[in-house]
Amino acid sequence: MLPVQLCFVGDSFVAGIGDETALGWTGPLSARFHQLWSERDVPHVDVFSPLERHPVWHRQVLEGDGAHPRSEGYTALYELVAPAWDRWMDSTI
Questions:
Q1: Which residues neighbour 74 within 8 Å (Cβ) at sequence distance 6 or greater?
Q2: Of all helices (H) and strands (E), which one includes residue 9?
Q3: pTM as predicted
Q4: What are phi and psi of 36, to 5 degrees?
Q5: With bands split at pLDDT 50, 70 and 90, how would you rate the model's confidence at 13?
Q6: Positive or negative, the Cα torsion across 69, 23, 11, 53?
Q7: pLDDT tens per residue, range 44-87
Q8: Domains in the chain, CATH or no CATH each
Q9: In a 3-state reduction of DSSP, which class is residue 87?
Q10: DSSP assignment of 42-78, as one string?
Q11: Which of 61, 77, 62, 70 is nearest to 11 (CA)?
């Protein structure tokens, strides 16, 4: 059996309407995933923390359904994930 190569991309910010302190379930879940993957030396990308503070992502999520931005928000997500994805892909070759 070949070894499995894994790169985990965390969950993105959900508005957490009515739960601004905990930002819904996503904040605690993201923190736990970060801890879990770090303990196991698995490459991972935390997108929750940067997107939580990203003004375009935040504004567009709140203007929409509370979970999904428009294209500018997804561009911000891509800009976080792409460098880590490229590093991970280069390391698996």
A1: none
A2: strand 8-9
A3: 0.75
A4: -60, -50
A5: low
A6: positive
A7: 888 888 888 889 988 888 888 777 889 999 999 999 999 988 88
A8: 8-92 (3.40.50.1110)
A9: helix
A10: --EE--HHHHHH-HHHHHHHHHTTSS---HHHHHHHH
A11: 77
